[in-house]
Amino acid sequence: MSDANDAGLALKPKWDAHGLITAVASDAATGDLLMVAHMNADALAVTLATGEAHYWSRSRQELWHKGATSGSTQRVVELRIDCDQDAIWLKVEPAGPACHTGEQSCFYRVVTPTGLVHG
Amino acid sequence: MSDANDAGLALKPKWDAHGLITAVASDAATGDLLMVAHMNADALAVTLATGEAHYWSRSRQELWHKGATSGSTQRVVELRIDCDQDAIWLKVEPAGPACHTGEQSCFYRVVTPTGLVHG
Q1: Interchain contact, B81 vs A48, CB within 8 Å
Q2: How many CB pairs under 8 A join A and B?
Q3: Which three-class secondary structure string do you get for A4-56?
Q4: Which of A59, A89, A107 sits opposite B33 (nearest CB)?
Q5: Which of A41, B33, B62, B103 has the fewest CB atoms within 10 Å around its CB?
Q6: All domains of chain B in start order, with CATH
Q7: Is 80 exceeded by the pLDDT of residue A112?
Q8: Which of A22, A30, A113 is the closest to B22 by Cβ?
Q9: Which pLDDT tens digit goes with each residue over B75-116?
Protein backbone atom coordinates (compact mmCIF):
# COMPACT_ATOMS: atom_id res chain seq x y z
CA MET A 1 0.00 0.00 0.00
CA SER A 2 3.00 2.32 0.35
CA ASP A 3 3.89 4.74 -2.37
CA ALA A 4 5.89 7.93 -2.76
CA ASN A 5 3.05 10.00 -1.30
CA ASP A 6 3.40 8.31 2.11
CA ALA A 7 6.83 9.60 3.01
CA GLY A 8 7.35 12.57 0.74
CA LEU A 9 7.11 16.20 1.71
CA ALA A 10 5.64 17.38 -1.59
CA LEU A 11 1.99 18.32 -1.64
CA LYS A 12 0.53 16.03 -4.30
CA PRO A 13 -3.17 15.55 -3.57
CA LYS A 14 -4.65 12.41 -5.08
CA TRP A 15 -7.68 13.98 -6.76
CA ASP A 16 -10.55 11.61 -7.50
CA ALA A 17 -12.33 11.27 -10.85
CA HIS A 18 -14.15 14.53 -10.12
CA GLY A 19 -10.97 16.38 -9.14
CA LEU A 20 -11.80 16.28 -5.44
CA ILE A 21 -10.38 15.15 -2.12
CA THR A 22 -12.30 14.68 1.12
CA ALA A 23 -12.01 17.61 3.54
CA VAL A 24 -12.75 17.10 7.23
CA ALA A 25 -13.07 20.12 9.52
CA SER A 26 -12.76 19.90 13.29
CA ASP A 27 -12.93 22.55 15.98
CA ALA A 28 -9.34 23.40 16.92
CA ALA A 29 -10.36 24.18 20.50
CA THR A 30 -12.58 21.19 21.31
CA GLY A 31 -11.48 18.53 18.82
CA ASP A 32 -15.12 18.02 17.81
CA LEU A 33 -15.71 17.07 14.21
CA LEU A 34 -17.68 19.83 12.52
CA MET A 35 -18.30 18.70 8.93
CA VAL A 36 -17.12 16.57 6.04
CA ALA A 37 -16.92 18.26 2.66
CA HIS A 38 -14.72 18.27 -0.45
CA MET A 39 -12.00 20.40 -1.96
CA ASN A 40 -10.73 20.78 -5.49
CA ALA A 41 -7.36 22.28 -6.34
CA ASP A 42 -8.80 25.80 -6.40
CA ALA A 43 -10.48 25.44 -2.99
CA LEU A 44 -7.23 24.17 -1.48
CA ALA A 45 -5.17 26.97 -3.03
CA VAL A 46 -7.58 29.68 -1.88
CA THR A 47 -7.77 28.16 1.61
CA LEU A 48 -3.97 28.22 1.86
CA ALA A 49 -3.78 31.75 0.50
CA THR A 50 -6.51 33.28 2.68
CA GLY A 51 -6.42 31.16 5.85
CA GLU A 52 -10.20 30.72 5.60
CA ALA A 53 -11.85 27.42 4.73
CA HIS A 54 -13.02 27.13 1.13
CA TYR A 55 -14.63 23.97 -0.20
CA TRP A 56 -16.01 22.77 -3.51
CA SER A 57 -19.78 22.60 -3.40
CA ARG A 58 -20.80 19.45 -5.23
CA SER A 59 -24.47 20.44 -5.20
CA ARG A 60 -23.86 23.92 -6.60
CA GLN A 61 -20.73 23.01 -8.55
CA GLU A 62 -18.91 26.11 -7.41
CA LEU A 63 -16.20 27.31 -5.06
CA TRP A 64 -17.74 27.62 -1.60
CA HIS A 65 -16.30 30.17 0.80
CA LYS A 66 -17.72 28.69 4.00
CA GLY A 67 -19.66 31.35 5.88
CA ALA A 68 -19.58 33.93 3.09
CA THR A 69 -23.36 34.31 3.34
CA SER A 70 -24.09 32.95 6.84
CA GLY A 71 -21.17 34.63 8.58
CA SER A 72 -20.03 31.27 9.93
CA THR A 73 -16.56 31.42 8.46
CA GLN A 74 -13.82 29.02 9.55
CA ARG A 75 -10.35 30.35 10.28
CA VAL A 76 -7.79 27.65 9.54
CA VAL A 77 -5.43 26.98 12.44
CA GLU A 78 -3.74 23.98 10.87
CA LEU A 79 -4.09 21.91 7.72
CA ARG A 80 -2.96 18.27 7.62
CA ILE A 81 -3.03 15.71 4.82
CA ASP A 82 -3.24 11.94 5.14
CA CYS A 83 -0.79 9.27 4.05
CA ASP A 84 -2.08 8.79 0.51
CA GLN A 85 -3.07 12.45 0.14
CA ASP A 86 -6.72 11.86 -0.67
CA ALA A 87 -8.07 13.46 2.51
CA ILE A 88 -7.30 16.73 4.24
CA TRP A 89 -7.95 17.73 7.85
CA LEU A 90 -8.69 21.34 8.72
CA LYS A 91 -8.42 22.40 12.36
CA VAL A 92 -10.49 25.58 12.43
CA GLU A 93 -11.80 28.32 14.63
CA PRO A 94 -15.46 28.53 13.60
CA ALA A 95 -17.18 31.93 13.72
CA GLY A 96 -20.56 30.20 14.02
CA PRO A 97 -22.43 26.94 13.43
CA ALA A 98 -20.88 24.66 10.82
CA CYS A 99 -24.19 23.02 9.95
CA HIS A 100 -26.94 24.46 7.76
CA THR A 101 -29.42 23.22 10.41
CA GLY A 102 -27.97 25.73 12.89
CA GLU A 103 -26.19 23.04 14.91
CA GLN A 104 -22.61 23.77 15.87
CA SER A 105 -21.54 20.50 14.22
CA CYS A 106 -23.16 18.47 11.44
CA PHE A 107 -22.60 15.43 13.69
CA TYR A 108 -25.32 16.33 16.22
CA ARG A 109 -26.81 12.83 16.44
CA VAL A 110 -25.40 9.73 18.09
CA VAL A 111 -25.90 6.38 16.36
CA THR A 112 -27.17 3.68 18.71
CA PRO A 113 -28.27 0.12 17.94
CA THR A 114 -31.90 1.29 18.17
CA GLY A 115 -31.67 4.54 16.19
CA LEU A 116 -30.34 8.08 16.48
CA VAL A 117 -30.23 10.20 19.61
CA HIS A 118 -29.90 13.96 19.44
CA GLY A 119 -27.19 15.44 21.63
CA MET B 1 -30.78 21.83 1.56
CA SER B 2 -32.94 20.46 4.36
CA ASP B 3 -34.60 17.11 4.07
CA ALA B 4 -36.13 14.49 6.35
CA ASN B 5 -32.70 13.10 7.21
CA ASP B 6 -31.67 16.33 8.93
CA ALA B 7 -34.11 16.21 11.81
CA GLY B 8 -35.18 12.59 11.97
CA LEU B 9 -34.02 10.01 14.47
CA ALA B 10 -34.07 7.08 12.07
CA LEU B 11 -30.74 5.75 10.86
CA LYS B 12 -30.99 6.07 7.07
CA PRO B 13 -27.48 6.36 5.66
CA LYS B 14 -27.30 8.00 2.26
CA TRP B 15 -25.18 5.38 0.48
CA ASP B 16 -23.32 6.59 -2.59
CA ALA B 17 -23.32 4.87 -5.99
CA HIS B 18 -20.93 2.27 -4.58
CA GLY B 19 -23.04 1.66 -1.47
CA LEU B 20 -20.62 3.58 0.77
CA ILE B 21 -20.53 6.47 3.21
CA THR B 22 -17.43 8.30 4.42
CA ALA B 23 -16.19 7.15 7.84
CA VAL B 24 -13.92 9.40 9.90
CA ALA B 25 -12.18 8.02 12.98
CA SER B 26 -10.76 10.21 15.72
CA ASP B 27 -9.01 9.37 18.97
CA ALA B 28 -11.63 9.66 21.72
CA ALA B 29 -8.99 10.74 24.24
CA THR B 30 -7.09 13.37 22.25
CA GLY B 31 -9.56 14.45 19.56
CA ASP B 32 -6.89 13.84 16.92
CA LEU B 33 -8.14 12.67 13.55
CA LEU B 34 -6.78 9.19 12.88
CA MET B 35 -8.04 8.18 9.43
CA VAL B 36 -10.69 8.62 6.77
CA ALA B 37 -12.18 5.45 5.31
CA HIS B 38 -15.51 4.12 4.07
CA MET B 39 -18.31 1.92 5.35
CA ASN B 40 -20.96 -0.07 3.58
CA ALA B 41 -24.11 -1.33 5.30
CA ASP B 42 -22.36 -4.50 6.42
CA ALA B 43 -19.40 -2.65 7.94
CA LEU B 44 -21.74 -0.35 9.84
CA ALA B 45 -23.87 -3.23 11.12
CA VAL B 46 -20.84 -5.24 12.27
CA THR B 47 -19.30 -2.15 13.91
CA LEU B 48 -22.52 -1.54 15.85
CA ALA B 49 -22.82 -5.20 16.80
CA THR B 50 -19.21 -5.71 17.93
CA GLY B 51 -18.14 -2.26 19.15
CA GLU B 52 -15.00 -2.55 17.03
CA ALA B 53 -14.41 -0.46 13.91
CA HIS B 54 -15.06 -2.25 10.64
CA TYR B 55 -14.69 -0.53 7.29
CA TRP B 56 -15.14 -1.43 3.64
CA SER B 57 -11.80 -1.76 1.90
CA ARG B 58 -12.18 -0.21 -1.53
CA SER B 59 -8.78 -1.53 -2.65
CA ARG B 60 -9.47 -5.10 -1.55
CA GLN B 61 -13.25 -4.93 -2.02
CA GLU B 62 -13.90 -6.69 1.26
CA LEU B 63 -15.05 -6.09 4.82
CA TRP B 64 -12.08 -4.76 6.77
CA HIS B 65 -11.89 -5.43 10.48
CA LYS B 66 -9.40 -2.71 11.38
CA GLY B 67 -6.47 -4.24 13.25
CA ALA B 68 -7.45 -7.85 12.61
CA THR B 69 -3.96 -8.55 11.27
CA SER B 70 -1.91 -5.68 12.75
CA GLY B 71 -3.44 -5.79 16.22
CA SER B 72 -4.30 -2.08 15.95
CA THR B 73 -8.01 -2.51 16.56
CA GLN B 74 -10.25 0.46 17.33
CA ARG B 75 -12.80 0.20 20.13
CA VAL B 76 -15.75 2.43 19.35
CA VAL B 77 -16.60 4.84 22.16
CA GLU B 78 -19.23 6.77 20.21
CA LEU B 79 -20.64 6.82 16.71
CA ARG B 80 -22.18 9.98 15.24
CA ILE B 81 -23.75 10.65 11.85
CA ASP B 82 -23.96 13.95 10.02
CA CYS B 83 -26.98 15.98 8.93
CA ASP B 84 -27.53 14.34 5.55
CA GLN B 85 -26.31 10.93 6.75
CA ASP B 86 -23.55 10.48 4.20
CA ALA B 87 -20.69 10.63 6.71
CA ILE B 88 -20.12 8.90 10.02
CA TRP B 89 -17.77 9.86 12.86
CA LEU B 90 -16.22 7.18 15.04
CA LYS B 91 -14.65 8.22 18.33
CA VAL B 92 -12.36 5.32 19.10
CA GLU B 93 -9.82 3.98 21.54
CA PRO B 94 -7.03 2.76 19.23
CA ALA B 95 -5.00 -0.27 20.31
CA GLY B 96 -2.13 0.88 18.08
CA PRO B 97 -1.22 3.05 15.10
CA ALA B 98 -4.08 3.80 12.73
CA CYS B 99 -1.80 4.26 9.73
CA HIS B 100 -0.19 1.52 7.67
CA THR B 101 3.03 3.60 7.79
CA GLY B 102 3.25 3.00 11.54
CA GLU B 103 2.25 6.56 12.40
CA GLN B 104 -0.39 6.95 15.11
CA SER B 105 -2.53 8.98 12.70
CA CYS B 106 -2.65 9.01 8.91
CA PHE B 107 -2.54 12.82 9.18
CA TYR B 108 1.12 13.02 10.24
CA ARG B 109 2.05 15.86 7.87
CA VAL B 110 1.12 19.53 8.08
CA VAL B 111 0.32 21.36 4.85
CA THR B 112 2.12 24.69 4.54
CA PRO B 113 2.26 27.11 1.61
CA THR B 114 5.71 25.74 0.74
CA GLY B 115 5.06 22.01 1.14
CA LEU B 116 4.52 19.38 3.81
CA VAL B 117 6.12 19.27 7.22
CA HIS B 118 6.30 16.07 9.24
CA GLY B 119 5.09 16.35 12.80
Answers
A1: no
A2: 124
A3: HHHHCCCCCCCCCCCCCEEEEEEECCCCCEEEEEEECHHHHHHHHHHCECEEE
A4: A89
A5: B62
A6: 12-118 (3.10.20.810)
A7: yes
A8: A22
A9: 999 999 999 999 999 999 999 999 999 999 999 999 998 899
